[in-house]
Structure formats: structure tokens, C-alpha cells
Design brief:
Hypothetical protein af1432, mainly alpha
């Protein structure tokens, strides 16, 4: 029996995300990864909406099923049932290292590259006196990457490997993510004092 194909809209993806995710920090992370994915879709000349939806939904099941391999496999099963395209589901599954799935296309590679980097750049912005991503520079991100006590849950090797796998030099990758998050700063609560 043929599956129904999901209506791949941002509104439908947001509805699904907010059905499964209530945590403000997880929602902000999803928005940050969406912004970074959209930025890379523009750079690679790909479908911005599709890439954005991958970013938005990559962790939608995490709050309910945080343990590997439930996350992201439970979410992938839900997306499959809803008729989401295979490449979207595959990209989401392949962002989890422990599934050991090869990242075979730029969408999968970009998701892996921006997932942790988006979180790291947000963490850097939050410790700035302004709490603004507009004050974050590539050099400050790289300096914080050397500080093992800062955002210690984020694997520095993954940050570097993600950029390398995507074929983007680390400084350029950091700059791209910063730029993407600056465009979404108000949505992310990282616009600084003037935004409040």
C-alpha cells in the first residue's frame, strides 16, 4: 500500500515539533539548527524549506525518548508513518553518531555539522555581557572551543569533524553558523538588551 506523502511545510513541522517538545531550550535549539540549515541550503543552492524542516525536526523526539537509539529512531518511525520523504528521515537518523550511518549527501552532512555548532555558538552568546549573538565573533568561538570547562557536553572533535565532512573550513563554518543565528537572534532570545 502506498504511503501518503506528508505535506512538507514549515507550519506542519513546527506543529509536530511543539506536540512532542515543550522545553524552551530544546525549541530554541531546533530554531537555531533550522536557521543554520537554511543558511547552508542557500550556500549549496538547495531547497531551503526542506533543509529547514530537517533542522527543525532533527530532535523533535528527544524530550520524550532521550536515550539512544530511541532518539532518533522513534522520531524517524513517526516521520515515516506521516509520509515524510526518505532523504529527510535519513538525514535526521544520520545525525546520531551511535547509529553509525554514513552521511551520504550535503543535507545529512550539514545537519551533523550545524547541530552541535549551533548549540555551541548559542552558549557563547549567552555568556557575553550583552547576551547577544550579534557580539559573537569567530575568534571568541574558537577561544571557547579550547576551554574544556565551557559547554563541556559538546564534543570539540565533533565540531571540527562536522565542518571537515561538509568540506567547509572551520572558520568559515563558524562564521556561517554565527551569521545564520544572527538572522534569527530575536526568535532565539539572543538579540541582546535592545531586543527585549
Amino acid at each position: 500500500m502506498a504511503r501518503n506523502h506528508a505535506v512538507m511545510t514549515r507550519d506542519a513541522a513546527w506543529e509536530l515539533l511543539t506536540e512532542y517538545t515543550k522545553s524552551e531550550s530544546l525549541l530554541r535549539h531546533a530554531l537555531a539548527v533550522e536557521a543554520s540549515m537554511r543558511e547552508y541550503a542557500r550556500i549549496f543552492g538547495e531547497d531551503e524549506e526542506r533543509w529547514g524542516i530537517v533542522g527543525l525536526l532533527h530532535d523533535f523526539d528527544y524530550e520524550r525518548w532521550p536515550e539512544p537509539p530511541d532518539h532518533p529512531l522513534k522520531g524517524a518511525a513517526i516521520l515515516e508513518e506521516l509520509g515524510y520523504p526518505e532523504d529527510v528521515i535519513y538525514a535526521i537518523k544520520s545525525h546520531a553518531d551511535y547509529l553509525e550511518l554514513p552521511r551520504v549527501d550535503n543535507m545529512s552532512k550539514a545537519l551533523y555539522a550545524v547541530d552541535e555548532m549551533s548549540g555551541f555558538v548559542m552558549a557563547v552568546a549567552l555568556v557575553r555581557p550583552s547576551r547577544s549573538v550579534h557580539d559573537v565573533k569567530v575568534s571568541s568561538v574558537k577561544k571557547k572551543m579550547k576551554d574544556k570547562a565551557f559547554a563541556r557536553a559538546i564534543d570539540r572533535d565533533m565540531l571540527r569533524a562536522g565542518a571537515e565532512d561538509l568540506g567547509v573550513e572551520l572558520d568559515r563554518h563558524i562564521a556561517t553558523v554565527i551569521g545564520a543565528l544572527q538572522k534569527a537572534a530575536d526568535q532565539l532570545g539572543l538579540g541582546g538588551a535592545s531586543a527585549s
